[in-house]
Protein: Amidohydrolase
Organism: Limnobaculum zhutongyuii
Amino acid sequence: MKTIHEKLGLETKSEGITLIDAHHHLWNLDLHHYPWLKNYDPNTFLGDYRSLIRNYLLEDYAKDSAGHRILATVHCEADHDYNHEVSETRWVHEQAERTGFPNAVVAHVWFHHDNCEEILTQHKQFPLLRGIRSKPVTASCSEQAETVKGAAGSMQDEKWLTGFALLEKYQLSWDLRVPFWHLEEAAQVARAFPNTRIVLNHMGFPWDRSEQGLALWRKGMKALAACPNVYVKISELGLRDQPWTVEGNRGVVLETVEMFGIARCMFASNFPVAGLQISYHDLVNNISEILSGFSQQQRDAFFWQNAQSFYRIDLS
């Protein structure tokens, strides 16, 4: 299979790391509406993200990832206008037909909405659909986590659980995205649906690197790691207004790999969002440095084989 750079006629370096990117985004602001990009909010965990308010197409991704051998990519829904969520899936498939990438798609559905199954069946018309990312209702901080339990759209909401159960019926995985103070609740869902494969996005956002914050993060991660149907993406390790450093992130990465095992961990860039703090080249190389103690076989599993298997990517 040709790499993304070969497909697009761009130079690629043979010494770069071979990988499948298990999580990135694309958007065309001329054609589609992304509320978070239309209405800039400086108070998000991203900090100043105004540089993202531009079109980001496959050609842009290919330029960012130059220097590495990208065998395949997984497009994850990018908070598109949820009144027209299927149009994002359609557009991403048009990009795949044009360029050969991405090679798997994670779309959006609201599990607790009455039209959940209707939207799922519309997404299922597209052949690269592999999973769903539907963000449950969460609290803004750990101290308020209990206040949203049982609320509409939360992971205890019966309507939400009924919609979630459809993933097994349609043979789709769930991309789990919650802050670390909700990880134990997510583990309860994972145990209740052992036949549904789940992948945690962004390592549960270990934003609080204090001893107390890491203890709470670690407790939730261990609960999820105890569920054999849960995998994890090593991604989005940036901290607001702080530089991305190897030493700053080595501990949480190695702890995550130890808890889940390398066979359930996968590389994911979260570009272009992660580009707010680090280049693609440095991101890959920094993660590679952190994992330097692992064998080549284990590194191959982490950088591309696990994602290929989880998202059922055809590399022929």
Notes: Residues 212 and 218 are 10 Å apart (CA to CA).
